[in-house]
Amino acid sequence: MECWIPLFKILLSSPCPESEASKWLQENFNPSSNATSISTTSLLSLLTRPSVESSSPQEKRNRIMWIQTLPNLVQARILSFLAYDHQRFCKRELCKLARIVLSEGKGVDFWVKRAAQQLLDIVSVSNYQWLSHLNLDSEEDNVDEEFYLMPDWLRDVAKESEPMFPWLPMSPDQLSDRIHLSGSEGIEDDLPIDVEQSKQVQSDEEMLEIDVRFDDPIDAEVEKAAKSLKSRLVDIESTSKAVDLAKEIRKLCFESRTNYSVILNLIEPWGVDDEIAAVLISHLLDGSEADKSDWASHILCSIVLPKFLVLNEPASRVLVNALIDYCKAHQGSVECALLFPLILRNDGINNPICDVITRIVKECLHPAHVSAICQKLLSKDKHAQGVICLPSHRPLIGGELVWTESMFSLWQNILNHNVHLMQDSVDQLVKLVCRNSDRYSKSLKFGNYVLCLVNKCAPLLKQHKVSLTVAVENTDTLVTKSILSKLSRL
Predict the structure, then answer these.
(1) What is the C-alpha separation between 226 and 245, in angstroms, rounded?
(2) How far is residue 236's CA from residue 241's CA, in Å, rounded to a whole number?
(3) CB of 423 within 8 A of CB of 457?
(4) pTM of the complete model
(5) Beta-carbon contacts of residue 243 (< 8 Å; ≥ 6 apart)
(6) pLDDT per position as a tens digit, 424-443
(7) Which residues, 6 or more positions from 359, have their beta carbon under 8 angstroms from its beta carbon?
(8) What's the burial of 490, exposed, middle or buried (CB within 10 Å: 0-12/13-18/19+)?
(9) Radius of gyration of the chain from Cα atoms?
(10) What are the tens digits of pLDDT across the range 444-454?
(11) What is the Cα–Cα distance from 291 to 407, expressed in whole angstroms?
């Protein structure tokens, strides 16, 4: 395990993890049969090793691979690296690994699932290739295991001359038959998984949850209690009473069988002033709801999000300070319950909203997490942007980015925060620059954003040099010449 730590550090922190990881593996490759040596076989063995040893048949079926115990970011980058450098690895083992990850279904992170699907697409045999073989065997049997076979030139030489290694105790054919495929212990070879069908079912389930969430029936007594809490919130004057009300709201949401969204929509906690709102978000979650992960998201989308969706002047310091402390402790909830809804606002973001989002990004989130959020925002997959909000605020949130000058400032702030974007994210940003160059030809904010993009993402912009140059030539700002000068040096 220790010998692979440098590789995992590269995958975690490098701006170009696939290429750097491939270079590291090439430089440190050791074809020794030792289990602790650095080789492609030992890496796959480590990744597919069961995380818990058990003799119980039930636990053997439920246990997970070691790679699945890693953070989602690391899992996605490992799978992306395996797809990038797949020619060095055994195709059958890569295919098996990808299928097992995809078989987890709904529990798989979006980017982990996407990387696993990409790996499976690369290493599996397509349908027309399968038909051309005129063989009814399984896909794995159709794949020629070149990874374990002798090269053709060596096999030809062996037929025409004496054995190259006369001291070898067995023939090459016998050796191939006895090779043990690493990483397959305790995991069935045949997984009857229809990946596309699984993806469709998962998407349907996600949409169903969103649709049903706001139509859940509510008990008359629960509805009466919620309306009573609403009237008490309107007349609240002291922070001590706000603490007591926060406890009552939490108790009502947890003890009733009604969905959180329905109850909070009746209470309307976003109507209180900023000082009371800061008290509520600090006391609605007391640490005992660790098993209710969506509760943290509902606190954000019912108190903070509605205030910021209509924000037209700088947010109050007391609310923002309380929000920052909350977001640091609940980073996963920030993505779907606050950042996505604000950035996807129907009218686009303005300067006050841009300032709030920028502070959250800089003070609460890891740059790698921000990079994943940017990739989801720019993705063509509509299911990537999972938005959590109350039904009364849904009309204020759209499904696509609205590009305003404040939006350009936000992306400039993100890039200046040393967030390393992926190639597909940069490709989308370049398209947006070309599309908006005429509209914002006189905008200095747009020009500063393009200059920042060229400075921070220069290695990823070489293929877009011509299109970017044409787009920038349509602008007329103080930084136009600087951008063109930097583009000419790409």
Answers:
(1) 11
(2) 7
(3) no
(4) 0.60
(5) 279, 283
(6) 889 999 999 999 999 999 99
(7) 320, 324
(8) middle
(9) 27
(10) 999 999 999 99
(11) 36
